Amino acid sequence: MSKPIVIAVDGPGGAGKGELTKRLARSLGYELLDSGAIYRVLAYAARKAGLALFDEDSLVQEALVVNLAFEPQDDGVHVILNGEDVSLAIRTEEAGANASKVAVLPRVRQALLARQRDFRQEPGLVADGRDMGTVVFPDAQVKIFLDASCEVRAKRRVLQLESSGKTADYAAILQEITERDERDRNRSVAPLKPADDAVIIDSSDMTVEEVFNKAMKIVKEKLGK
User: Fold this and answer.
1) pLDDT confidence tier of residue 65, bands split at 50, 70 and 90
2) Which pTM does this prediction carry?
3) Whose CA is closest to 132, among 25, 37, 9, 18?
4) Is 7 helix (H, G, I), strand (E, B) or coil?
5) Taking a C-beta distance cutoff of 8 angstroms, is the pair 127, 9 a contact?
6) Per-residue DSSP letters for 75-103?
7) Which residues have CB under 8 Å from 43's CB, separation 6+?
8) Full 3-state SS string of 139-183
9) DSSP 8-class letter at 27
């Protein structure tokens, strides 16, 4: 039997993967996996439990027991940790940086691998992450690598924060994005890189709608729809 369809969308933070994958999942009626949220939730849960983010043994144990669920809502997919909606708490710059630190630990990644693969269900899955097409779902039928320059991603984050009434320091955000990219691209386990058979989309000069339309064209070509 053939496995359920997986559309793997990888790329650095701020490239637009979240919006693209939500739109793809809605349009196709597929399940959605935000793998980055899993690492953010684990880091958040670890900090709440007083664990150090370099304590690999403790983090592995936490990864095995953390109770995580995704609940689609009108305003997006809500992330539920032990019955608590932590969607906003895990989307801060600090949470993103903590997730990146946790994600470099080999045994933590292994502990979360099976949980991510369990999301592969009919009629299909759209998987958002950094190693979906290279490690988690190497046999994904569609692989897209969504990229954008550090400067563009920093500007997008500033606009996002300011639109929600928060102050934003462009230089600090740019530095954080650059450092996070460096960690993600050069880690020894599952580094951030396009799969050999991935189609690369650079969203730097594209609108959300243009990115979605291009991705849907790729999906239809790959799946013969």
Assistant:
1) confident
2) 0.82
3) 9
4) strand
5) yes
6) TEEEEEETTEE-TTGGGSHHHHHHHHHHH
7) 53, 95, 98, 99, 101, 102
8) CCCEEEEEECCHHHHHHHHHHHHHHCCCCCCHHHHHHHHHHHHHH
9) H
